[in-house]
Amino acid sequence: MQNWKIKLSLFLNYFVFAILLNSVGTVILQVQNNFGVTEGAASILEAFKDLSIAIVSFLISSYITRIGYKNAMLIALAFIAVVCFVMPFTASFFTTKLLFAAVGSCFALIKMSVYSIIGLVTNDEKEHLSLMNFLESFFMVGILSGYFIFGAFVDDAHPGSTSWLKVYYLLGAISVIAFLLLLSAPLDESRVRPEETRSLLEEFGDMIKLAITPLVLVFIASAFIYVMIEQSIMSWLPTFNKKVFNFSTSLSIQMTSILAASTAVGRFIAGVVLRKMSWLAFLLICLLSAGSLLFLVVSNMPATPRGSSISHWTEAPAIAFILPLIGILIAPIYPAINSVILSALPVKKHGLMSGLIIVFSAIGGTTGSILTGHIFQAYGGKTAFYFVIVPITVLVFFLFLFSRLRTKYQRPMAA
C-alpha cells in the first residue's frame, strides 16, 4: 500500500490528540468536583484549548511549509509528552488551564500538518473525501477510548480525589510511541516547499487574500457554526448526564462515549457514501435529521432528575442512550466541507487553508461551549441543549450557499 507508514502515523497522531482535546468535557466535570468552580467558570477551559489552537494556527499557517509538516508534528508530540508527564504533579484549576493551552497549541501544528499531508498522499477529490472521513472517524475512536480511559481513573467513592490525574502518565507514553512512529515514517514534501524566498508579511498577505474570497468566507462561517454545534454537545454531555439524569461521575463520563462511537460510525459511513452520493444532499439530510432528533429527545426528557444516583449502565433510562446518537447525523459534516474546500484549491494553498480552518473552528468551539455553559448555569441543561437547534438551522442555509459558490469559484481558484 502506497504511503502506508505516513498514513498510519497520521491516524495515531490524531488518536493521541483526540483523547487529549476532547477530555475537556470530562475535565470540566472534574474541576467542578475537585476545585469547586461553577459551570460558567469551568467553561473557560474550552477557551484555553480553542483560542490557543486559533492563535498558533494564525501565526504559523503561513510559515509551516518552511518548518515542514513532519517536523511540526514531531515538535508537537515531543512537547505534549513532556506536559503530560508533568501534569499529575501540579493539580490546580490554573495548571489545568495551562494544560489545555498546551494541548491546543500542539494540536494546531498536528492538524495543519495532517490536513495538508492528505493532499500529498491522495490522487483525486473522491479519494480525498474518503480519507478525510476515515481519518476523522478514527479521531472519534480516540475520543471514545478517552472516555473509558479517563473513567477508569475516576474514584467515585471519593469525588474530591485527584487520582484521575494519573491518566496523563498513560497519555504521555502514547505520545512518545506516536513520536517514534512518525520519526520512522518517510514523507516527500518537495511539492509544497517554497520555491522562492518570501517574507512572512507576504505569506501572511496570501492568507488574508485567501480568507476574503467569497467561497472561503462562506466556508469559514459553515465550519464555525458546525464546531459550535459539536462542542456545545460534546463538551457538556458529561455534565448534562450528571445533572439532568443524576448519573455518577464515572458513568456520566462513560455514557458520553456513545456520542464518540456514533460520531465515528457516522464518519465511517460517510467515507463510503460520499464516494457515490452528492455531498450537499447527504449533509442536508444529516442536518435536518439531527435537528429533529434533538428536539424530540430533549422535549421528552424528565423535568427533574431521579432522586438516587445512577451508577450502572443497566439502570440508565433509554432516552440517555438515544441522545448521543445525534453523533451519527452530524459527524459527516465537518470532514466533508473541509475536504470540499481543500479539493477546490491547489496543493500549495492547503497549508494556508488548513490554518484558516483551524482558527475559525477553534473560535466556533469556544463560542459554543461558553454559550452552552452559561445557558446551562442560568436555565438548566434542557434549555442549553434546545439552544443547539438554532445553529443547526442556520447551517442548512450556509451549506446551500457554500455549494453554489463552490461551483462558481472552483475553476478560478484552482488555477
What features would you describe in this structure?
By secondary structure, the protein is mainly alpha-helical. The protein has one domain (4-188, 198-414): MFS general substrate transporter like domains (Growth Hormone, Chain: A, Up-down Bundle). Helices cover 77% and strands 0% of the residues. The chain contains 21 helices and no strands.
| Rg measurement, Å | 21 Å
Question: Which spans have pLDDT < 50 for at least 5 consecutive residues?
Answer: 411-415
Under CATH, the topology can be stated as Growth Hormone, Chain: A
What percent of residues adopt helix (DSSP H or I)?
Answer: over 70%
Measured between the Cα atoms of the first and last residue, the distance is 31 Å
What is the tally of beta strands?
0
- Our estimate of the beta-strand percent is under 5%
Taken in chain order, the helices and strands follow as: HHHHHHHHHHHHHHHHHHHHH
CATH class: Mainly Alpha
Task: Indicate the overall shape.
Answer: globular
Task: Based on the coordinates given, report the CATH architecture.
Answer: Up-down Bundle
Structural class: mainly alpha
Query: Count of helices?
Result: 21
Compute the number of structural domains. 1
Considering the protein shown, what is the CATH homologous superfamily?
Answer: MFS general substrate transporter like domains
Main pleated-sheet profile:
none
Mean pLDDT: 82
